[in-house]
Amino acid sequence: MSVRRLYNASLMGALALLVHLCMVDLAICSSNFTDQLALLSFKSSIKNDPNNVLSNWTKETNFCGWAGVLCSRHRQRVTSLHLRNMGLGGNISPHVGNLSFLQLLDLRNNSFFGHLTDEIGHLRHLKTLYLFHNMLEGNIPLGLHHCQRLEVISLEGNKFSGRIPKELNTLPSLRILALGQNELVGTIPPSFGNISSLEEFGLNANHIYGNVPTGLAQLPNLKIINLVFNYLTGPIPPTIFNKSSTAEIDLTSNAFSGNLPTNNGLFLPNLEVLLLDHNQLTRNIPSSLSNSFKLTANSSCQLVYWTNTKTFRQSKTPRTCIYLKIN
């Protein structure tokens, strides 16, 4: 190959590399601009910012330095939006769904209202969603099941209504599903028995009726189940009392009926809290139930006997283990 041809080949290679780098830079700039626009749209939907938290959210400053915003180190993409306890009020802009690298959305303990739109389902990297204690209403968006990396969904203390999306059972890493203190209706989807990763399930203070699905009670990693103040009926699935992982069971104020499992059906070595009062359960309490609690000679647990009229405390230690005695 002549020197001239070698020179031309080298020049073409250098130009190709330059074009590639320019295209990469352009793509990064374009993506970063999308994040900036999404955040500015979020700000424009805020109607009340009493502490001027968003005062530095301006086009003249780098959005990675804005209050509550955390970006990835190299690509400068928004990975966290953390604005809890800020007194913010307004709608959650659907353009938040354009923050395509967002992993944490924490807006808890504010005054956000209106609907949570299906655009939330565009956040394919989202792992943690904290929206509890706001005033959000309408249906829980079906699009959430597209966020396949979700580990925590915490929506309690809002005004969400309608049925619980059965599609949430497709989330392979979901550990915490907290939907309490809303206005949800209907039954617990039987498909929730497929969420094998689930550790905490809260559905307290809604309008849920029907039976507790057997599959839900059998989930191997379930530690906490809170279904207090609903309209659930039928027998309590016996498998809920036969899992070593269980630490807390609160089924207070429903319409459960029937018997508790026999002594042979009880295996709760890590149980710390059991609340079953204000149901329609029969009086027979298996003698081994108290032995199921996580109590040792040096235990700091407090064993509490609940009746329909009073509470009797055996000790004054800080940790609480609760046992129902039906009158």
UniProtKB/TrEMBL annotation:
Gene Ontology biological process: defense response; response to other organism
Subcellular localization(s) per the UniProt record: Membrane
Protein name per its UniProtKB record: Uncharacterized protein
Location of the Disease resistance R13L4/SHOC-2-like LRR domain: 81-228
N-terminal signal peptide: 1-29
Organism for this UniProt entry: Camellia sinensis var. sinensis
Keywords: ATP-binding, Glycoprotein, Leucine-rich repeat, Membrane, Nucleotide-binding, Receptor, Repeat, Signal, Transmembrane, Transmembrane helix
Pfam families found in the cross-reference section: LRR_1, LRR_14, LRRNT_2
